[in-house]
Amino acid sequence: MKPTVRTQIVPLLGFLMAQIFISHAGGAEAPPTPVAVEANVRGSYLLGSKAVSQTPKYLGVCLEVADNAERSNLGDWLADSGAQMVRVLHPDKDVRIVPASEATYKQIATKSDFDAFRARLLADPEKNIPWSNYRFDKEIPWLGIPDVEIKKVIQAGVSPIVSIAYGPQYYPGPLLKAFTEEIQAKDENVNWPAAASAYEYYLANVYRYASRNGVTHFMMLNEPNGGLKNIQQIGVIARMGRLALEDVRAKLSDKSTAAGLRLSGPACYSNSEEFWPYMEPYVDLLDCHFYNPDPDMFTRQYTRTTMRAGHTGKKVAFTEYNRIGGPLQPDQALWVLKPALQLGALTMAILCSGRAGDPGCEMALLYEFQAPATHRNFKSLVYGDMNLIDWTGRDHGLNGESSEWYPSFEELQIRFATPAYHVFKMLSRCVPGAGAGVESYEVLGVGESTRGFGEVWDKDISNNIYKMLDERKYYALGGAGPEIRVLAVRTPERLIITVLNPAPTPVKRVGFDLDYVKEPYATALVRETSLNRRDQVIAQMAVTGKRVIVDLPAESMTQIILIKEDLTKVTELKFEERTVTPGTIKDLGLYQTTRLCALGKIGERWLDLSELNIAWSSSEERLVNVYQGGLVERVRQTGKPVVITARTLEGGLQISQTVMPDKEGQKLAPSGSLVPNGGFEQTVANTKEAVADWATGWDLGLSPAKGWVAKAGVIPFWERSQERNHTPGGNACLKLTVDPAKKRPIPNLAAVAESRRGFEIYSREYKISAWVWRPAHGGLSEGTLSMEVKFSADRNAPPVHVPLKNMADLPVDQWVQIEQILPVPVDASRLQVSIAFTGEPKQAGTLYIDDVNLKGD
Fold this sequence. Notes:
Layout: E1 4-10, E2 20-23, E3 43-54, E4 58-62, H1 74-81, E5 85-88, H2 111-123, H3 125-128, H4 146-155, E6 159-163, H5 192-213, E7 217-219, H6 228-251, H7 255-260, E8 262-264, H8 272-279, E9 285-291, H9 295-310, E10 315-322, H10 337-352, E11 354-355, E12 361-366, E13 370-371, E14 382-383, H11 409-412, E15 416-417, H12 419-428, E16 442-448, E17 455-457, E18 465-467, H13 471-476, E19 485-490, E20 494-501, E21 507-513, E22 523-529, E23 536-542, E24 547-552, E25 556-563, E26 572-577, E27 593-602, E28 605-608, E29 614-618, E30 624-626, E31 631-634, E32 642-648, E33 654-659, H14 663-666, E34 708-710, E35 718-721, E36 733-738, E37 748-751, E38 765-773, E39 784-791, E40 800-806, E41 815-823, E42 831-838, E43 845-856
Parallel strand pairs: 3-21, 4-5, 4-12, 5-6, 6-7, 7-8, 9-10, 10-12, 13-14
Antiparallel strand pairs: 1-2, 1-24, 3-11, 3-16, 14-15, 16-19, 17-18, 19-20, 20-25, 21-24, 22-23, 22-25, 26-27, 27-28, 27-31, 29-32, 30-31, 32-33, 34-37, 35-36, 36-43, 37-42, 38-41, 38-43, 39-40, 39-42
Helix pairs in contact: 2-5, 5-6, 6-8, 9-10, 10-12
């Protein structure tokens, strides 16, 4: 039995007024006797009204190996993740086809020569930049096609930051003719041919993607080596980068893109302060990398980094972060819940380390989004084919292997999401991104009560309160230690409270006090990622008081989302498909994805409920999966239709969408008739054939042909006859003889599966048909031939009755096909076909039937 989740909102100084139980096992619990609120919670957190810190503008990810971006499912996964920014064109590659040479720039000897070169390029960048020497629209190993990767990222609604990656090694000579002690090199010491090469490279990147795609963010190179001479040369590159960026800004007709242009870098792991004096005049963001599992270490480094950058009003950026730099063991991978929650704690620290009023943090990008990747195996949020993963513990990257290990399109198709993916997705709701119109969200102060966390009540003596002194006392008193982390983020429309409980024990009845929250929130939603849940909504309630009480599962992240809309007023649901990949709900191939949004109508407004109060489900989740945000993916080839359902947690509204088999899946559906022995070629004579596994009264009847059974105790009107035949190569059919004088019951006959174990049904619509011959002499002239189809999936469901033909309407002395389409429940696993003759003919007569068929339409 799954655990019961109990969530309440009650006034702070009163009695327990409301309690909501959600039992995933369907069992009911008796409500507890009302008690005083203070005695009814373990402890509580008080939310302040003022911002004490601010979030970054963007929370995002780093991409590697974006081959086949146009036809892969990468775009849908990026959109579903909630990432607002992604680093692209990494690992660093020279995108020139022919590397820069001294001969190419030999005419540029002085600063004046450089200015003339620059002016010529800017006179008409579309013509004068040597585009034919750049691989922007060509396949680059381990990168894919840069133009395509950037286009698909933007289509997914994510802002790219383009890694330009130009380093001193991209030109055969140094960028300085003389290395001096000066921070900014004088013009006479600059090697202008080398500088011109750097300028052109930057101009080509920035102009192409700013003018064509509206890209605003660019970064220098990734983790360059230190050393004074190298740093000084990169300083010259930064100067050229700033010139190129400002030149593009002046050329752009889109003023919004022009105003948003930013240059970051170089991205340093531990030596950013060595580079900063040489970069600061030219870049907008001090760019760092951070790898450490301790969230407090991030806060300390962030404080120091912002001191350096903020001294001149610059923001900071973290274009890589994760728990551990370098290789990892498989048990440290993010599909293990504990490391996933550690990453959640680190990300929570990133979201609240910026002090309100400071220049702030522009972005924090998680390394790494997907595997297979070039460098690492165990840092990714999502995975494609895991056969490419190095499971030895050496964590060998694919880029160090032979060409046979280059991943194929199918191997790169993402199909597995780690728990960390859902943790990241929950936290991505706490950051504005480009479309919110603000630079950051407010992080509110949170005060923790002493009792319940720092101190706990003794279970035996209620007046005693103990400090948690050791592990034994901690567990004896039910957990709830200082490891719990709480992040309260206020957006213009919502209040999002995220709670991390990494402890191995659940913490019951934790209160969140809203005394100083003035916004008129109407609905509270609780979502959870834990051992058995993935960003799943578990509770919805009206906000009527000043305290929210939530149970925190062991090793979990819980998120309380307070919104201003009253979701009890939703009157209607509808789907909207928003895929950016080749797969659609109507044609979804293996590993293809699509995204369904569940929109709810409140008054005249449609609100996206997909990640609020919608519970998503699939009728065959191991064949076609749906994640708790509406991302749909076919993970196994099948001929079955699969139903995706979106249901509101409260209110009883529900909509469904059927994912039909694709072309490959249709090949798996059985061909031919599903009716055994529909041509009546196999004989059984008069043996009795029991079918007691169907509780339909067809047991112990006499069989005219194999697989066909009459009602129990009925002397059959039907017989297998060789007088006529319609089956190609056959010699038999079924003969019906009616004689009113013999006063027999209505003739009826059923066909069941020969295997007795049933067969799978692959289509929601079937065509049932039969061939009929009515003799001119002695043929039936009254009564109706009909068929019934029953389903094993639901024996309470009424059978589908299919009237076929009145005898008087049938032509004589010829085979006539009669057929009709009928619906079959999607969960049916077995069918039973019955042939019946109804009516009371007044004279005797015969009828021949052959090739009874039931086949998916």
